[in-house]
Write a structure and sequence with these properties.
With about 260 residues, this protein is mostly helical. It is built from twelve helices and two strands, in the order ααααααββαααααα. It has helices spanning about 5-10, 20-25, 35-40, 50-60, 65-75, 80-90, 115-140, 145-155, 155-160, 165-195, 200-230, 235-245, and strands at about 100-105, 105-110. The relative contact order is 0.16. Residues about 1-10 and about 240-255 have low confidence and may be disordered.
Length: about 260
């Protein structure tokens, strides 16, 4: 492979979804799949799922960076402390769950037990490259990463408390209410208010009809928006995740283990 080809497949930190986003939660699942194990067997340095689970049980109350380096060394992996600090700074590794805990050796910072899991993901992605990562995610997860999926997955939780279909549902219900209550009541009020004045009735009926046409146009645009999101944007997994970062990243649970 030419140097140019290698550069095209190389991943940058910005390509990887940050801690706490929907994209990161999904990417963490790769360790459970055969293609990931195969990549390790072919020489990519990383932890197996069983090893990560054991580490998380061992440090269920939190892991220090000293402990993290110890686990990396046992696995034969080397990651400089300055690199780890940079990953934390840019959101690729979780911040301390407990700022400072006093020990016999002094105060230390404790990180979530998933700290090594996140570090493993970042290092694996950087070493494996875009092509390998896309193949694993596409072949093993089988998730529909259309634009519609990303939009829905990055809609604020509060919206789902009211609408099962997220903001698309909010659009539909709001436009229905606009027609059923707004326009309907307005029409009734016009008929009653200007019953003796046919000229004014006609004037406001026309105004209401213009408003209804605008509402119908909005309805059509919302439908086009939803259809386009469902049909388009089936990019590579990592491109899709990068797109989701430009939207409103939805915070997910499970990062405070």
């Amino acid at each position: 492979m030419s140097g140019k080809g290698k550069r095209l497949t190389k991943l940058k930190l910005d390509d990887i979804p940050k801690v706490g986003t929907a994209g990161r939660k999904i990417m963490l699942l790769i360790t459970r799949h055969e293609e990931y194990k195969k990549a390790i067997e072919e020489g990519i340095p990383a932890f197996y799922e069983e090893e990560l689970s054991e580490i998380e049980k061992k440090y269920s109350d939190g892991i220090s960076q000293i402990d993290a380096q110890r686990e990396l060394k046992k696995k034969g992996l080397a990651v400089k402390q300055s690199v780890i600090q940079h990953y934390i700074k840019v959101g690729q590794l979780p911040k301390p769950r407990e700022a400072r805990r006093k020990t016999k050796k002094g105060a230390i910072s404790l990180y979530p037990s998933s700290f090594i899991r996140h570090l493993n993901l970042v290092r694996f992605a950087m070493i494996a490259g875009r092509k390998v990562f896309d193949e694993i995610l596409n072949a093993e997860l089988g998730v529909d990463f259309s634009d519609y999926f990303l939009l829905q997955h990055n809609t604020d939780d509060e919206c789902y408390e009211w609408y099962d279909d997220g903001f698309f549902g909010a659009f539909v219900v709001s436009l229905w209410r606009f027609e059923e209550f707004g326009l309907s009541y307005a029409s009734d009020a016009i008929e009653k208010a200007f019953k003796p004045n046919a000229k004014k009735q006609e004037k406001y009926r026309k105004r209401l009809e213009r408003i209804r046409k605008i509402k119908n146009k909005l309805e059509a645009e919302v439908k086009k928006f939803e259809e386009e999101a469902k049909e388009n944007g089936r990019l590579s997994m990592l491109q899709s995740f990068a797109l989701s970062e430009l939207l409103n990243p939805k915070q997910v649970s499970g990062e405070k283990k």
